[in-house]
Design a protein that fits this description.
Number of domains: 2
CATH topology of the largest domain: Rossmann fold
Radius of gyration: 22 Å
Strand content: 15-25%
CATH architecture of the largest domain: 3-Layer(aba) Sandwich
CATH superfamily of the largest domain: Glycogen Phosphorylase B
Structural class: alpha/beta
Largest sheet: 8 strands, mixed
Number of strands: 14
Number of helices: 16
Strand order of the largest sheet: 1-4-3-2-5-6-7-8
Helix content: 40-55%
Distance between the termini: 37 Å
């Protein structure tokens, strides 16, 4: 088991975050950003990371202790069959779960923060140790028997469920029983960069993994339709390829890209940090078919960049149509293209929507507010597990 430390602010209370991902994506980034604010409430945060990657490389600078071990568990039947194969994964799983237990015994956290439903196996180990568990759902899975079973299991393990949006909270509450469900919306840092000044070329961008769920195909369709009307536009897509293992999707995207007359009008950048690419965008697009509460839209809004987004999941909790951004029907590339052309042609509309979006982020989506919500969830979890009977009953009714 590899590990790293850094000098954390002194805290009376310890929390261990169980991360499910090895790359530093939205779910892990949102929690790491709250670490310093949580320290102000007395929490020292450590992390369990299931393998090498960008998350392990950067988290050691932000967490008191980072424990890392390769995770044999997979999230799907296809994942279990991938190297090193089903048999070896199954053989390594008991040892991996013992290592999770050893990490818990070493850190001795007052609260365990399971960061997404995909961390349920590790959260179950924490529960078996008698530790308070807060499980945060950053995802908005489709309705169905698998989702219902996962949420019911999560509610049986966790003392508190945390949703990143009201849309996610509504789904959790359908199956959570008596387990409290809090909505704690993610915050973003105050903007430190300047958005694109509007100089040529006019650039439309997005930051998302390449997948059908994130609507990469819709982004490319909208690009082609917009370019038919305004050939001078340029489009940039930043995001890791094939993280969702969507069979056949790459070929579909290649065909869509080939339909764009000017090959220089579209650039697929691969993975890039949002902070690197957002300042050069004139308009940001979120074409996802499902979103719990995306960070990149908030980060674009914080820079004063007008956002055109599909009205799915928690996005309408971020954007009021034609006030703090533009909302379009889901799965509608034509509507996205129409608004891109309109925003290109109307600099006053761009400026008004962009300024209102930035003000909305400053007032409603701060890391301080996020940390306050997590602190409250941690305290309720502690009270539900260890407080006197009267306090436990009261904590069970808080939501």
């Amino acid at each position: 088991m590899s590990e790293s430390r850094h000098a954390a602010p002194p805290g009376v209370l310890r929390v261990l975050a169980l991360f499910h991902e090895t790359e530093r994506l939205g779910a892990s980034t949102s929690v790491l950003r709250a670490v310093d604010e949580l320290a102000g409430f007395g929490w020292t945060t450590s992390g369990w990371i299931p393998g090498p990657g960008s998350l392990a490389q950067t988290a050691s600078d932000e967490l008191a202790l980072v424990l890392q071990r390769d995770r044999p568990l997979a999230f799907s039947a296809r994942g279990w069959r991938e190297s090193p194969g089903l048999a070896r994964r199954a053989l390594r799983t008991p040892r991996y779960l013992r290592e999770v237990r050893e990490a818990l015994e070493r850190v001795r956290p007052h609260v365990v923060h399971a960061n997404t439903l995909l961390a349920l196996p590790e959260a179950a180990v924490a529960r078996s140790c008698g530790l308070p568990v807060v499980l945060q759902a950053h995802e908005l899975p489709p309705a169905g028997a698998k989702t219902t079973a996962a949420i019911r299991y999560a509610a049986g393990i966790a003392d508190v469920l945390v949703a990143v949006s009201d849309a996610v909270a509504q789904l959790l509450r359908r199956h959570a029983g008596r387990t409290p469900v809090f909505t704690v919306r993610n915050g973003v840092p105050a903007a430190t960069a300047q958005a694109h000044t509007g100089s040529s070329p006019f650039t439309v961008g997005t930051v998302a993994t390449v997948s059908r769920t994130k609507g990469t195909d819709l982004f490319l369709r909208a690009a082609r339709l917009s370019l038919d009307e305004r050939p001078g536009l340029r489009f940039e897509h930043a995001g890791s390829p094939d993280l969702h293992r969507d069979s056949g999707f790459d070929a579909e995207l290649a065909l869509l890209a080939s339909e764009i007359p000017d090959p220089n009008a579209l650039t697929m950048l691969g993975y890039r940090p949002a902070a690197e690419v957002l300042p050069r965008f004139d308009v940001y697009v979120c074409s996802s078919r499902s979103e719990a509460f995306p960070l990149a839209t908030l980060e674009a809004m914080a820079l004063g960049i007008p956002v055109v987004a599909a009205a799915v999941g928690g996005i309408p909790e971020q954007i009021d149509h034609l006030e703090t951004g533009v909302l379009v029907r889901p799965d509608d590339a034509e509507a996205i293209a129409t608004w891109l052309v309109r925003l290109h042609d109307d600099p006053d509309l761009r400026a008004r929507v962009g300024a209102a979006g930035a003000e909305r982020v400053r007032s409603d989506f701060t890391i301080q507010a996020q940390a306050e919500g997590l602190h409250r969830a941690y305290l309720v979890a502690l009270n539900r597990r260890f407080a006197p009977a009267g306090v436990r009953r009261a904590a069970a009714g808080i939501a």
